[in-house]
């Protein structure tokens, strides 16, 4: 798990608008592996300002308003948001909070990406905004306390395509049910859980596993199959502006940050690269690059007629660093001119679309 690929210039390509306080990550220079993870745990624990669980309701309008899709300031619910079309329903902050629900769209509540049952609903884990998201009550209940995983044959599918069903994650011996969010938010979920096992490293041995947490190996933090899956989701779905803005709001609120949003390259530096890599074909089905490997530093995209709607294209290397951003990339056709990037594998993200490509 400690093998790292394409590590160069750590930190150089971190998002310039992440608003990281000066000196916040002092002491991390030169650290890798679990030594880096432990140092980050110290940093994001120091100065943490604990709030009540109910106080999250007042914070969510600052951290989780939709300014990215419909841009209507309704609740950005990862279990109902439709990135490519009309949402099946929307919630206004403070209106239709659960309560009771019987179907989707009845009410919203709070989703602990690491279920409360694993830490006996104790503070500060119960109220830590970095891993608690406002979501539809029905879908939240559907997810229950199941691990996240890959679902091939869903027993239930939410209106935005999130799925519950038997675990089909490669390399897993767990045969129970798992929950799979849509591609657009898989990286978000992964970074929530990686934050959690870093922030609560010293308490992890007292939690329940739930086929999620590795309470016997607090350095690794997650059971191996779940870790490998989340590492691949982190690689496939790079950090978005939504996550950056939410991280800044969370810092204003509780005075700590998710380091894997500020420095996504640290995920690979700590845990290595997932053996699942980026081989999930579902991430590439809507965006085709040909030829691939690319030639002459030019990406040619085929089979897409509506790319002009996308205002930015972002190129990431396989440790999550944003190595190039192109504004208005498709105004003159479906090609993107790259900077002289080193040979290797990369991810192109534009709007809700992701795909991998190779520079040979």
From TrEMBL:
Claim: Nuclease is one of the keywords in the record: yes
Single GO molecular function: hydrolase activity
Family: Belongs to the EndA/NucM nuclease family.
InterPro entries: Endonuclease-I, His-Me_finger_sf, Secre_tail
UniProt entry tagged with the keyword Kinase: no
NCBIfam families: Por_Secre_tail
UniProtKB keywords: Hydrolase, Nuclease, Signal
Protein name: Por secretion system C-terminal sorting domain-containing protein
Organism for this UniProt entry: Epilithonimonas hungarica
Pfam families linked: Endonuclease_1, Por_Secre_tail
Residues annotated as signal peptide: 1-18
Secretion system C-terminal sorting domain boundaries: 290-358
